Amino acid sequence: MSTGSAYNDDKGGSSSLGEPEYGHDPASGGIFSSDYKRHDDLKEMLDSNKDSLKLEAMKRIVAMIARGKNASDLFPAVVKNVACKNIEVKKLVYVYLVRYAEEQQDLALLSISTFQRGLKDPNQLIRASALRVLSSIRVTIIVPIMMLAIKEAASDMSPYVRKTAAHAIPKLYSLDPEQKDQLIEVIEKLLADKTTLVAGSVVMAFEEVCPERIDLIHKNYRKLCNLLIDVEEWGQVVIINMLTRYARTQFLNPNQNESLLGESAEKAFYGSDEEEGKEDKEEAAVLVKRKPYVMDPDHRLLLRNTKPLLQSRNAAVVMAVAQLYFHLAPKAEVGVIAKALVRLMRSHSEVQFVVLQNVATMSIKRRGMFEPYLKSFYIRSTDPTQIKVLKGGTGDILEIAPGQVAGPKSDTWDHSVIQSSNWKGLDQLCTLQPG
User: Fold this and answer.
1) How far is CA 113 from the centre of its chain?
2) pLDDT band at 281 (very low <50, low <70, confident <90, very high)
3) Which of 387, 405, 396, 386 is nearest to 423 (CA)?
4) Of 139, 264, 278, 387, which sits 20 to 30 A from 66 (CA to CA)?
């Protein structure tokens, strides 16, 4: 027998129960097959009395799911092992159930008592996983059970379980909106939580269930501002967006007097009647005599605690802070966001697209903010077409001369691409507002 055939016999032939079968295709991952017989082997392993075989089967099933393979036919065999005493097996079983509980609702309902026992498990990961599976079963008949589980989890000693409870709140609300009042009570309790792990999740639940209940934020505002720097990145995005909306309704506009003066001057300039012009001048004089604006300490706290996040590696966090500063910062301070946005311009084209849209709309109101960075908006021959169009529209707003060059000859305005779509793109950009 040749070496090649011997290798095939060793690696490609049928293997003993529980041993992975190595495929010939390197792209296959080499440890499983889509063959129905393979699933039969997995079912036998899951029915085995040996935890080692069950663990191996669950590892292979989870690997199948990770590769996008359908493993829903294994649900009956897997769900039986939710009561397994081996903690590693139980973790993987819950990973599987979270994925397929919504698809296999009838079978999941048969094991609901087991999930309820899982909520009392000493291991925090099992308690959280049991709640996650329970909230994935989209059947109204178990709404009271889900509500009780969420309330208990909201008081759990583990912040990870409390975080999972916050994630379960929007799921229950979408299943039965009549539970809103009870869910608001849970949200109010979780908003008082002082751990960074919970903060982002409960604010997300607040935004989805009761965004109009601004009163729930009042007593937690300072705590959220102080926790913000230590919250995980996507939680920061949710919290910053919520605080932006909150601050715009609770604090005075730091640029209000300036805006009123500008409006009065514009009315006086365009006024056709001398009497009206005189009245406008008198109003402007009154505004000038007003007491100078003094920023609220809580307003300043928000600006101070979000400013370091302009250095975040997450583009979504930077964009959220930029929009917050654009709407809430005094004119003299809003310029700090320009450098951060220009830094994002060096990122992927998808990020550039979003940044350019926001830069264009910001520049309509504060054109001088980006003047020190005009070279970053020059069109390059390597830019994708959509980026060239957006840069063209942004360049018109920033009043960049079409003939200007950013360095090499390739970094010039590409009229062949821009000419047909420039004004259309500019019109669209001007109608967009950041935030």
Assistant:
1) 33
2) low
3) 396
4) 139
Instruction: State the chain's maximal CA–CA distance in angstroms.
Output: 109
Crossing angle (nearest 10°) for helices 124-136 and 87-100: 20
Q: Are 79 and 105 in contact (CB under 8 A)?
A: no
Rounded to the nearest angstrom, the gap between the alpha carbon of residue 348 and the centroid of all alpha carbons in its chain is 18
> Average pLDDT, stretch 359-387?
80
Q: Give CA separation, 46 vs 10, 14, 55, 72, 377, in Å.
A: 25, 19, 8, 15, 59
DSSP E strand stretches across 296-412: none
Place of tokens 């365009």: 270
Question: pTM to 2 decimals?
Answer: 0.75
Return d(Cα 149, Cα 137) in angstroms, integer: 13
Q: Are 316 and 233 in contact (CB under 8 A)?
A: yes
Tell me the C-alpha distance between 73 and 76, whole Å.
7
- Token code pair at residue 212: 């109009």
Which of 30-39, 108-117, 316-325, 353-362 is predicted with the least confidence, judged by mean pLDDT?
A: 30-39
Of 249, 248, 243, nearest to 317 by C-alpha is 243
Q: Alpha carbon 168 to chain centroid distance?
A: 16
Residue 279 burial by CB count (10 A; 0-12/13-18/19+): exposed, middle or buried?
middle
Give the E-state strand segments of 190-316 in sequence order. Answer: none
Contact between residue 109 and residue 139 where contact means Cβ atoms under 8 Å apart: yes
CA distance 64 to 131: 24
Closest CA to 232 of 351, 313, 174, 154: 313
Residue with token string 């169009």: 389
C-beta separation of 54 from 45 below 8 A:
yes
Q: In the structure encoding, which two tokens stand for residue 210, read together?
A: 């009761």
